[in-house]
Amino acid sequence: MSNKIITYGTFDMFHIGHLNLLKKLSQMAGHVTVAVSTDEFNDQKGKKTLIPYEQRAEIVSSVRYVDKVIPEYSWDQKISDVQEYSIDKFAIGEDWRGKFDFLSPFCEVIYLERTKDISTTELKKSLKNFLSIPQEDLIRAFEVIELLRRDLE
């Protein structure tokens, strides 16, 4: 497999869905390039990230399925990235179906099934809900857990 594939994403709060995507891409091509959205681009999209770009890019680049990480700084860079890096395939989650068909003259466009029941958006909602629990309730819950643990010993 000597062909090259590219994907784009924010990769905030790296999770199993991200890993599954990158693993799938490595099975589809001999070289995987990942464009990680910069903080400035996420601001333009109205997206708030928890982890700064440099750390997100480093996390993604450390995954064994990834050969190259580049910054994603605009919606308009995709065609030039495909040409500059000699990309054969563009792949992204099926929730984007149809949005990147304009790349078809330049490379194969593939929309992949997402990992069921996992998304950064849902993780952020869960975290927000967790953080909205009053501190006293959390302390009481941990005290009950500790008492139960002691009873089991």
Structure, explained:
It is elongated and about 65 Å long. It contains 6 helices and 5 strands, in the order βαβααβαββαα. It has 153 residues and is an alpha/beta fold. The protein folds into 2 domains: 4-115, Rossmann fold (3-Layer(aba) Sandwich), CATH 3.40.50; 119-153. The longest helix has 18 residues, at 135-152. The chain has a 5-stranded parallel sheet. Helix content is 43%, strand content 18%. One of its GO terms (molecular function) is nucleotidyltransferase activity. Residues 6-125 form the Cytidyltransferase-like domain. This is Glycerol-3-phosphate cytidylyltransferase. Pfam families: CTP_transf_like.
Task: List the SSEs and their pairings.
Blueprint: E1 4-9, H1 16-28, E2 31-37, H2 39-45, H3 53-61, E3 68-72, H4 78-84, E4 89-93, E5 108-112, H5 120-131, H6 135-152
Parallel strand pairs: 1-2, 1-4, 2-3, 4-5
Query: Cα-atom Rg, whole angstroms?
Result: 19 Å
SSE topology string: EHEHHEHEEHH
Determine the mean pLDDT.
86
Structural class: alpha/beta
- Helical region count? 6
| Morphology | elongated
At the fold tier of CATH, the topology name of the largest domain is Rossmann fold
Record field, number of beta strands: 5
Quick one: CATH class of the largest domain? Alpha Beta
How widely separated are the two ends?
55 Å
Domain Cytidyltransferase-like: 6-125
InterPro entries: Archaeal_FAD_synthase, Cyt_trans-like, Rossmann-like_a/b/a_fold
Keywords: Nucleotidyltransferase, Transferase
GO molecular function: nucleotidyltransferase activity
